[in-house]
């Protein structure tokens, strides 16, 4: 089977990729003196032998703009947005308690309001996983469980260590559970397969992490499950089963063929026409100081509904900066971001992912080494991946 190899050179990367039709080779050179090329892996993933790019860029940005560290820390507005969206979803569930599930009012409300609201709550939990709602770690854990309630299925406690490991081990095979497995990429390598993946991607993201490695069960996991089961029971008892059906359908649609769900694919999948080759006419551009991009931002209007998750390069560079201050980071360090490839539409991302034969689940950068699991007692420091966990701890990236 043809393979893809990414190898380091003096200031960038050289990417060799054999297209699936095997009739020609794509050869993108960003450096002129490549190091020794490692043995190709037996798949189509883009295998990298450099470290992930965000640490390098974070250090460069702090050196050029030390004031960005003042942007780190919790955002008080987050808790109010969470309460408002949770209230909205419970109100919608109540109002639909006597509406048939298979009816236009029910389905349209679930898609337009419910899926958008629950996607917002998914990303609230994402934001809170970095300790960005409160200064207190316990308060962050509790509001994440609260934000989880309209989603219908307990997941906030498990999401946090998996997600922080994704940050600490970006692209590392066997650690970063955001990466598709070879089995997924192989069996879904077609238009129908990719359409299936986009339709049911919320299930892939829910099940895949548990198949890659299992988390130890902690008290917050048990509390998350107990709180969710109690909420679901009370909702059914006092309002009815259709109310819970509305919430769960909203969660499914939020991670299906929904405009806001485009961020799942846009964030780290490599779209050939957009990011390979990565070129800039400015030879002095700070963007060239980092390896080939494997994270992609989106600067469109849907960020207003999704905690600015589209500013994904900015988020990975500084996980301790909350959603309201990511645009400020972008403006302060604009020279580091303006030349990076980015998306203009999440809807187009889904469309291109499904129909473009050169884009698919194989289009992810992977690496064999680096990173570590978060939350396994291996000496990691929680403050490295979110707002300071301990009073007096240093801001991430500041030595």
Tell me briefly what this model is:
This protein is about 45% helix and about 5% strand.
Q: Distance between termini?
A: 45 Å
Low-confidence spans? 1-41, 273-281, 377-399
Q: Oligomeric status of the shown chains?
A: single chain
Overall pLDDT = 83
Query: What best-fitting shape do the alpha-carbon axes yield?
Result: globular
What is the chain-wise order of helices and strands? EEEEHHHHHHHHHHHHEHHHEHE
Number of helical segments with 4 or more residues: 16
Tell me the helix content.
Answer: 40-55%
Radius of gyration over alpha carbons? Answer: 21 Å
Q: What's the total number of strands?
A: 7
Beta-strand residue fraction: 5-15%
Strand order of the largest sheet: 3-2-1-4-7
For the largest beta-sheet, the strand count, sense and barrel status come to: 5 strands, mixed
What structural class is derived from the secondary structure elements? mainly alpha
How does this structure look, described?
This protein has 399 residues and is mostly helical. It contains 16 helices and 7 strands. A 5-stranded mixed β-sheet has the order 3-2-1-4-7, with no helix packed on it. It has a two-stranded parallel sheet with strand order 5-6. A hairpin with an 8-residue loop joins strand 2 and strand 3. The chain is globular and about 55 Å long. The N terminus and C terminus are likely disordered.
